[in-house]
């Protein structure tokens, strides 16, 4: 019997690469998706050698509307089926919403929202029919706490709302497929060491962040894998972020915003 296959987007670095290693360490074959073929090929060689699994390398830009179908077709052409989907591909859209072009915003939405939904729509029916499936959508703590100005500066004005949508979409699809053996989980990490912060220009600012704010990609992946296997709809990795999001739920909105504003001054080194 062939091993199960996990499709992981944004697998060339950071959280995506960590998920690839996590799934491979547990005996899953992995299909690795990103734009940088050299990074994917190196990761494929690593997990094959270390864990004896099979890999597929698929280069694609998920800001391209046709990419999800192309990816699914490539897996089918290889004679495989997708048993787990980790929607992780992403990037920031720095700058004020009113100062950026709609073309840039539309590309951002395609990458961060539509590609996730398309891949779920393409893979979930087969999972339900077979009676087994796992879907993980990478959200963010920013979806669960009051919005800070840093979101606009580094990730984009729409970033928290996009990540909130992924949480609700995951919860809803999980409820729909609960009795069909398909688990759907949104994973909402906070600041995590990855190339994401280099690309969006936040690396220097993060030097002001207390060490306990920073998560390791490997810990996020292990937590996400555990959550989806348990059928947990939402997982917030890290004790500090569990505390932060729990506090945000019980504090009055004005007080929660004041707390976020104070934390933002810490991030900015003020």
What does this structure look like?
The protein is an alpha/beta fold. The chain has a single domain, classed as NAD(P)-binding Rossmann-like Domain (Rossmann fold). 53% of the residues lie in helices and 13% in strands. The protein has 11 helices and 7 strands. Helix 1 packs parallel to helix 2, helix 1 crosses helix 9 and helix 4 packs parallel to helix 6. About 3% of the residues have low confidence.
Features:
7-stranded parallel sheet, globular, 13% strand, Rossmann fold, 270 residues, alpha/beta
The CATH class name reads Alpha Beta
CATH architecture: 3-Layer(aba) Sandwich
How many structural domains in the coordinates?
Answer: 1
Write down the Rg: 18 Å
CATH homologous superfamily label: NAD(P)-binding Rossmann-like Domain
> What's the pLDDT, averaged over the residues?
89
N-to-C SSE series? EHEHEHEHEHHEHHHEHH
Low-pLDDT segments: 197-203
Helix count, DSSP H or I runs of 4 or more residues: 11
Helix content: 40-55%
Can I get a quick summary?
By secondary structure, this protein is of the alpha/beta class.
């Amino acid at each position: 019997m062939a091993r199960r296959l996990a499709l992981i987007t944004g697998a060339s670095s950071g959280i995506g690469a960590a998920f690839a290693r996590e799934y491979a360490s547990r005996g899953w074959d992995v299909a690795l998706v990103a734009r940088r073929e050299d990074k994917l090929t190196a990761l494929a060689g690593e997990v094959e050698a270390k864990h004896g699994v099979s890999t597929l390398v698929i280069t694609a830009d998920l800001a391209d509307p046709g990419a999800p179908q192309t990816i699914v077709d490539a897996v089918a052409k290889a004679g495989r089926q997708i048993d787990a989907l980790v929607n992780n591909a992403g990037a920031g859209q720095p700058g004020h919403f009113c100062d950026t072009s709609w073309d840039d915003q539309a590309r951002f939405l395609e990458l961060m929202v539509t590609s996730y939904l398309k891949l779920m729509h393409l893979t979930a029916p087969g999972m339900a029919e077979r009676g087994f499936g796992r879907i993980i959508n990478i959200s963010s703590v920013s979806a669960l706490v009051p919005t800070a100005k840093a979101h606009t500066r580094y990730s984009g004005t729409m970033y928290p709302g996009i990540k909130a949508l992924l949480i609700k979409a995951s919860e809803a699809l999980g409820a729909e497929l609960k009795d069909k053996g398909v688990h759907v989980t949104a994973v909402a990490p906070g600041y995590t060491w990855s190339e994401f912060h280099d690309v969006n220009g936040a690396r220097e600012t993060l030097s002001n962040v207390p060490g306990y704010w920073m998560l390791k990609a490997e810990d996020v992946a292990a937590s996400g894998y555990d959550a989806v296997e348990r059928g947990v709809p939402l997982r917030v990795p890290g004790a500090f972020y569990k505390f932060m999001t729990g506090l945000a739920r019980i504090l009055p909105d004005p007080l929660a915003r004041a707390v976020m504003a104070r934390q933002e001054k810490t991030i900015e080194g003020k």
